[in-house]
Amino acid sequence: MTGRSAPAVLPPSLRVWLGPIAALAALVVVVLGVRYAGDSGPGMVDARIWAAVDGMGSPWRHVASATDFLGEPVGAATLVVATVTGCLLLRSPRAAVLVVVGASMTVGTATLLKSLVGRTIHGADNLSYPSGHTAFLTALALVVALLATGRLGLGRTAGTSLVLAAALVAGAAMGWAQVALGAHYPTDVLGGWCTALAVIPATAWLVDRLADRLADAGRRERH
């Protein structure tokens, strides 16, 4: 099931476009990280966006809190288990591996960047850049979109559009929640979104390469 006959988790039709997009996203993460390294307050853009969402009513705060829960340990674990189960039911073991490895790599990268950048919010102990919640949900959406692209046999344009739209929707939803709750600066959210865009395509490519090599090794042993 993980051999060369299994569909690639990163469809070949998307590699040409997602590669440069991932590189650009990585560049944005680095630039923002350098710009806000060691900061403990909002930038000009952050302040303007915060002012726009200030005074949000209680019903919307409940929505924001519910969305935020999806990035908390219990909520995130539930989403991962549900997504892995769906991948296995669809007989897409590579996608199941990517869910676990991709989400772990994305969150791990965000955590490492927080320590390196050192930007804080609401106190010196609250590292904020990039947003791990936003990175996680965006990463999960990217994996699901990649799976859908492969199963539907979408071409380069349609597939890339679907992947980016899924990332945008997930990132915007979690990003809005983080900003509305005051948990992150808007630029933290952008950094988290770009972290997922940089990590997931690279991880998907590595999963495909490893699966193909294992399949080749298995065939050589049988012969």
UniProtKB/TrEMBL annotation:
Q: Which UniProt keywords apply?
A: Membrane, Transmembrane, Transmembrane helix
* Limits of the Phosphatidic acid phosphatase type 2/haloperoxidase domain: 74-204
One Pfam family of this chain: PAP2
InterPro entries assigned to the protein according to its UniProt record, in alphabetical order: PAP2/HPO, PAP2/HPO_sf
Q: Does the keyword Membrane apply?
A: yes
Q: Spell out the protein name for this chain.
A: Phosphatase PAP2 family protein
Chain segments annotated as transmembrane: 17-38, 95-113, 133-150, 162-183, 189-207
- Whether Membrane counts among this entry's keywords is yes
Q: Which organism is it from?
A: Streptomyces mordarskii
